Amino acid sequence: MEETVSKNFIEQEIEKDLQEGRYKEVVTRFPPEPNGYLHIGHAKSILLNSGLAKEYQGTFHFRFDDTNPTKEKTEYVDSIKEDIDWLGCDYKDHIYFASDCFDRMYECAEFLIQKGKAYVCDLTPEEIREYRGTLTEPGKNSPYRDRTPEENLDLFRRMKAGEFEDGSKVLRAKIDMTSGNINMRDPILYRIARMEHHNTGNKWCIYPMYDFAHPLEDAFEGITHSICTLEFEDHRPLYDWVVQECEFDCPPRQIEFAKLYLENVVTGKRYIKKLVDDGIVDGWDDPRLVTLSALRRRGYTPESIQQFMNLVGVTKSHGAVDMAMLEYCIRDDLKLKRPRVAAVLDPIKLVITNYPEDQVEYLEAKNNQENEAMGTREVPFCKELYIEREDFKIEKPKKYRRFYVGNEVRLMNAYFVTCTDYETDEDGKVTTIYGTYDPESKGGNSPDGRKVRGTIHWIAAPFAKKAEVRLYENIVDEEKGVYDEDGNINLNPNSLTVIKDAYVEPALEEYGPGDSFQFMRDGYYCIDTKDSTKENMVFNRIVSLKSSYKPS
Ligand code: ATP
Ligand code: MG
Q1: Which of 239, 366, 521, 532 has a Cα-to-Cα distance from 157 of 20 to 30 A?
Q2: 33 CB under 6 A from ligand 1?
Q3: Level-2 CATH architecture, domain 260-341+466-552
Q4: Which residues on neighbouring strands pair with residue 468, listed in sequence order?
Q5: Ligand 1: which atom is nearest the Cα of residue 261?
């Protein structure tokens, strides 16, 4: 697939900045808040930012934006790091914690106070809201707005020292209560909150607000292009105000792009967390989710995610992308890389009546028909085999080319076999079919030019390994859409099907958790990293072979 050569709007901005000498180098960052696991949307931001740094020989920073202790946990810090490493981003030793800069942020706040650009305000949260005005009405000044820098400095230091109750005072920027942009109406910079922080413990009882902390973090690290999603567009004037008033040389600039949305897929951290907390899924890495840990467990590769992002591109307008596009990317990535093996998910037995009772022979099979370099393997063949129930019909449907009594079919890499009979249990369910083979057709080649129209896969029954196979569908009921009227997720009751008694060929015993394969004629599967053991192998279906997406 060809990659688009035209530059996206962010690349164009960066090149202009470099040409005009606004910046001498490019430093980007990915700043996750450790309040959940990363999802496919975050991967877009990660790969965009790290990709730009690479493209312009710059530096990519990975920063935990951990300034809000209420929802943050070290579990999330660990998982985020694992995901970023998995994606293969190169942040070298540029890993930062925003909370390591609390002292410097505090100094910036004092600096603003001394400049007369920030003040301590005693209004209650309700009053602050009231004074802020609305989209159509200007706000009005707080009665505390004209406190002197000395008084503000004294009060702010006492806020820090823990002299005041939570919520009783805040530090605010002194900008413009009549601004058309509500974010500029004297936004709060610091609040009092006695909370334990995962990094700084109980050292602080005041914490900076996101809109103050974020531009400072960028400026401290020497970020040039602070690339974020569109919902921060209205915050950009405040971002610029903070870095200007704090008087940084060469301050960073913010550029916004549209978030990635997948059609009928739950992406918001908040919603994923609810599925986890309600026990609807098996943790943050349940393969039905689109967190990066879930996609990894499902069998997606970093390469497939990168290719997906290349296809999606970077824009300034929202549009949902079809999940089928991501599925196309994983199929495309695994197609030539992974072995193609036999698995029978719904087995019936095939007995070859003219094959010697105790004989076993080993037949050569290509590991990947489209990639000779992957070599061959030996597969055992004998009198009793397992085949898919689907590959036999009592009543032959139109155009059906597989087994029915009287029909000759090719067993892949093995022999031509003609079906002669079948057996059912008391419910009429087929248990065994019978057939005769043509010894002259070894390797699946016609001995005399006669044609067989159907080719099916099989596993020698005594050698077959029993396995559990998990089939996934969207966790969302696509007919109904993601959310119902109350904002709850419309769940698809069939999102998980567990097959306990599937069979896979013996060669799979040599593989371990995370390895993936094509199960011939079916789809791509991977060995589950959480539940699979040597004795009880568990396979996740990554994606079926059938595709509803065609790249343009
Ligand atoms: P969510 O909305 O899923 O809770 P978030 O925006 O709260 O995600 P953060 O940890 O605050 O998550 O975000 C880290 C970075 O990832 C931010 O720069 C954010 O803009 C970006 N990001 C989050 N979701 C997406 C998305 N769907 N597409 C692109 N970038 C995203
Ligand atoms: Mg967030």
Answers
A1: 239
A2: yes
A3: Orthogonal Bundle (1.10)
A4: 538
A5: 27
